Amino acid sequence: MTRYNNRILGPLPASEINRLAPHLMPIRFPLGRPLNNGHPSHCYFLEQGIASVVVHHSNGATVEVGVVGCDGVVGIPILLGTGSAPVNVAVQIAGSGLQMTASTLKSEFDRPGHFRNRLLNYIHAYFVQISQTAACNRLHNIEERLARWLLACRDRMSTDRLALTHEFMANMLGSPRTTVTLAVGLLEKAGLIKRSRGAVTILDRPALESAACECYRIVHDEYARLGFFDA
Q: φ and ψ at 178, to 5 degrees?
């Protein structure tokens, strides 16, 4: 039986994996690749790397409302039968995964079984994430939000070194680059992270969790409860 690192696919029983495997095509995700162009023809199960769900405003401002990695799937509008959503999804950390046609995903989702249940659990967790992110962007300061965001990325990666630039972090957090650079410097001075050209390395995860707002633990614990993260 094929084994998958994606946490929707990984726990499935052999009978369902064997049925799905012929429809799962390996794919590489280069940095910046868009994953929802209009009405998507495919969904994506990431195994490495991270995709950002981003809202763009007419004045050019952007803010990230969600992240997807090995925990989930890019393609919730397909599952819900709406076809598209007014957000942009693009690869923020390059990686790899699997793609499945939209029609296959929808037909398999409509079929009772473990795959359907895992997808329903993921939809719930994803909605918890985006609702908590909305509250966080309104209520918490940039240092807390940055710590939360770095930890959210780390939960979906197998390394403490995250390939992230200050400009990208500013776009995702909806804050000026100078503000984000200052926040990064404060976390680095405290010994929580180390910055290098094009990357941030987490040095002290427990301390970074203490620096993050409560939103990180709320979302993490819900994902863990449903089996998408380690406790």
A: -60, -35
